[in-house]
Amino acid sequence: MSNPIGFFDSGVGGTSIWKEVIALLPHENTIYLSDSKNAPYGEKSKEDIIALCIKNTEFLLKQNCKLIVVACNTATTNAIEYLRNTYNVPFIGIEPAIKPAALKTKTNTIGILATKGTLNSTLFEKTSSTFRTHIKIKETIGKGLVELIEKGEFNSKETTALLQYYLQPMIEENIDALVLGCTHYPYLIPQIRKIVGNTIKIIDSGEAVAKQTKAILKKNDLLQLRKETPKHVFYINIDKNTLKKLVLNANNKKQVKVIETTF
Question: Annotated active-site positions, please?
Answer without folding.
Answer: 72, 182
